[in-house]
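Hi again,

Forgot to attach this to my earlier email, sorry! This is the prediction with flavin-adenine dinucleotide bound. I've pasted everything inline since the attachment limit keeps bouncing my files.
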Amino acid sequence: MIMEFPITPPIGDRVKRKETLRFVTGTGHYVDDLLPPGTLHAAFVRSSCAHARIKGVAVEAARAMPGVHAVFTGEDIAHQVKPLRVGGSSLLRQIKLYPLAVDKVRYYGEPLAVVVADNRYLAEDAVEAVSVDYSPLPVVIDPEAAMEPGAPIVHEDVGSNIVYKYHFATDGIDKVFQDADVVVRERIRSHRIAACPIEPRAYLAHYNKEEDSLTMWSATANPHSLRGRIGDILDFPEGKIRVIAPDVGGSFGVKIQTYQEELLLPYLSRELGRPIKWCETRVEHMRNGRHGRDQIHTIEMALKKDGTMLGIKDKIIADMGSTYTVDHSIMAAALYMTGVYQIQNYAVDAFGISTNKTTHGSLRGIGKADASYVLERLVDIAARELKLDPIDIRMKNFIPPEAFPYRNATGALYDSGQYQLALKRTAAMAGYEQRRKEQAELRKRGIYRGIGVALVMEPTSSSRIHATGGYASCRLRIDPSGAVTVFSSMGEQGQGHETTIAQIVASQTGIPFDKITVIHGDTLPTPYGFGTGSSRSSVVLMPSAWVAGKLMRDKILGIAARQLGVAPEKLEIGDGKVFVRENHQQSIAVMEIVRTAYGAIHLLPENMEPGLEVTGYFVNPNIDYAPDAKGRMNTFSSYPYAAVIAVVDVDVETGMIKIVKYATVHDCGNMINPQIVDTQQQGSIMQGIGAALYEELRYDEDGQLLTSTFMDYRLPSVEEVPELALEHIVTPNPFTPLGAKGAGETGMLGPPPALCNAVEDALSPLGVKIRETPLTPDRILNLIEQAQATSHHA
Amino acid sequence: MYPAAFEYLKARSVRDAIAFLKQHGDDAKLLAGGQSLVPMMKLRVARPKVLIDIHRIADLNYIREESGAIRLGAMTRHVQIEESSLIREKIPMLAEAASKIADTQVRNRGTIGGALVQADPCGDYGAVVLALNAQMKCVGQRGDRVIPATDFFTFAYSTALETDEILTEIVMPLPDKCSAGVYLKLEKVAGDFAIASAAVQLSLDSGGACNEVGIGVTGAGMVPQKALAVESLLRGKTMSSALIDQAGQLIQESAEPIEDLRGSAAYKKKALGAILRRAIREALQRADARKPS
Ligand SMILES: Cc1cc2nc3c(=O)[nH]c(=O)nc-3n(C[C@H](O)[C@H](O)[C@H](O)COP(=O)(O)OP(=O)(O)OC[C@H]3O[C@@H](n4cnc5c(N)ncnc54)[C@H](O)[C@@H]3O)c2cc1C
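Structure tokens for the complex follow:
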């Protein structure tokens, strides 16, 4: 179904965010601000080995410490709870995951026992008194080593570290490679990073004995799913569980998944009959929060001499860490390796590998960031090989606007796009031609300036078989006092839903934006729905608000029509009134309609229900729930993208990189609030710059994480923000009523390929080739030296 | 991030603090701005039983010019140094070093005394006090003494201070009127500890030869170092590119940097050479404007 876009203000306005004031004045409410009377505090005993059998855990000394109420080990609770179900597709091998490690620890920092005490300080003291007897096992950190026969096995019951395998090939892929003029090959690795939300994880579970009910406050991005999982592992009726996500300080994907500690707290509260709280420290978050990226691609592209791309073959090795629960990262990469190019010949072998690292999971751009990084690097490598300009080779191969909706080789259905236009505009913004001349001049003076091009595409709003991501919902109520409330199925962690939902409802109903309150994150009042991730909000949640608004509008007009004796089509809402379009004097106050709906129901049109409450659902468009005969399917429903040109200077004496300019044109279709889209892009771009230049999670051979504080894991700060030129083009998504595509992640995808391409371009006179990231000064100087050594040899 | 239990004592004077130190011996730690000590306590790497808070002793917070030197109370905060017009005018390299430390929050609380006693191998003040031949005044149970900067740093995170001594004042002899100084720091992101840094103070005679010169560097080893060999290489010589390159080479050869997540030892040597060359060039430019005609 192709949609029309009847979009009226305040949709599309730069409305100031409703939630900003409480955040900037420090009056938001986070889990850590809550302290019900009688709350006890948990602290975890965490593995000091990356891989070991647990021979014994001595807890007596800890139990005897002052203020300690209880100590539980994995053994104590293994028979009291059910293991957590592993998500993902049927290709992923199942493991049993308990809230605390039983028998064996599989990564450094894995929780294996818990102390509950009067306060966190005493709990931490008691944690130190627990002594664990380990029998160390060989550690496997490198995913390629983990695939070798004889490698230490992370999950014995799976029997292999290859826990996921996927193969896909189009007919005739080999022939394309045989017939090609050129084949370029490369091995490219995306390194492991952390999302680092400003608020780490935080949980507070409160079991009420008298009511036999449970309230769980969690800094989660997925309250309804969490509720189901708690019910599941505790064997507790889901209807008696309420999950509340109060203000949440960022998620970036890492809070959409369910964690071991998160499932344990409700158990502890039920056992001890007291509220139990645990707020993660930063060090714990670095060790235990989900990590992202970490894929090795061995990829080749077949081309004609003129730069026409013919086919791609890829082998993906994705490090999933130890207690993996999802396979989205591999799927998202494997399905999109052909990116924004017209390449219908494609083959991939993808392997998900279990290692003794922290569990891998969702992180802004999951899988898709790896795919676009690898592909956009490969395109530059091909351009250099064929002596083509990096812009020209892309322009030649882009999927043209008239080809949309476009089905790629794996069956993904791209909604819309104008890639040529986006890159052309970006080149103009960056002054590309002029920059090339300037580059030549600077080189003569020994200044190494580089220009990097990339066009990244971000599949958004995923829905997998058996997942609940296929829809979202909003319930809209006008109560007897006239107060307008929207209950959203999806919570927010910085996306601005309180504002954008209100904009949509205001636009549909004519009720002023300021009068609309949005409630989210609480499973009790809000309708069911999957969590906030995969940039789904603008694709499924906002349309559900739009549907709810439309239902409400129809109801209001229906009531007014009967009272005014005019057909509903002739009516308009505005200024607190419903009036006849042709004759504004003929009107009725909206409050009068509210009173009718609740208190004078004999005046309602025939068969109309009393009250003013409606629920809007929207189904994720274009999702396939089963592959076709050739294994092709579409699992994402919208395809925003961004063109990027980055200009950098590389200091060849120190290896330092300075971003001179970062120009980007972004297309997420219609923007509900361009201000919010801009800030999402800015933050997202900075996160991508961090990933490309500064951030890396590093392990030593024993599997100890070396980067567990912000002293060692350096994030960029405001001082690293480059001169940023950001513009948008609008190609509406034809499959949603608002014409919107996901807007949360694309920014992060640009910097890794654009900056690598720019640095390689800057250092091309020295023959430097970049194969690893981040682009640390140490690595840059090393590469220069290596390149010089080889050129001296030649 | 939950420290082990400790007792908190507030010292109102240096004498108070000495008495507390005497009473609690090795169980006690002085608390200045807390910007190094508190994070370590939160990680439970440091676990003092008693904290003696000296950071509000007013007598230890001042910046003044007196008998040919700038005197700083040990509890003077980084932000005060960064913003002091006296320091900016008389010893700009010190203000530059202070401004490069961490972020605003840390600079608002951290103190010069705390930073020097912390003796982080990558800290910013070490190079400056060595370049300027500063003196550290300390008070202990057995009385006062003065430790020259060159004797102050003994190892990573260790100084010549006894555990029952308090650093009270840093005395920086005023450089010659026609001398100029600079502090340059190479850092991965703004506010990070240095990969390498160099403090260079020098003056030129009317012929353009280097007269007085003081150089300190960090990133060359476990402690900040006074680059004596480079100083003598430059002293009395007319500056040239070749000479500056030689200075960089010299520091690079003698350096034994600590390998860490900011870089390998081999990398840090090169980085140190580069930053020293740049600092010398910058100092020369500044000195040129002040040289006697
Ligand atoms: C995020 C962050 C980034 C940082 N980055 C940098 C940087 O880039 N460069 C840099 O140089 N520093 C950096 N620092 C350290 C900062 O400069 C600290 O302020 C400094 O190291 C310690 O000073 P303090 O006053 O906070 O001392 P405290 O932390 O209170 O004390 C440090 C130590 O010195 C002892 N001590 C303090 N005062 C005295 C005294 N008068 N006599 C005897 N012993 C004393 C204490 O007992 C303790 O052992 C950073 C710190 C943080 C938290």
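Chain B has a mean pLDDT of 96. Residues 265-288 of chain B form the longest helix (24 residues).

That should be everything now.

G.
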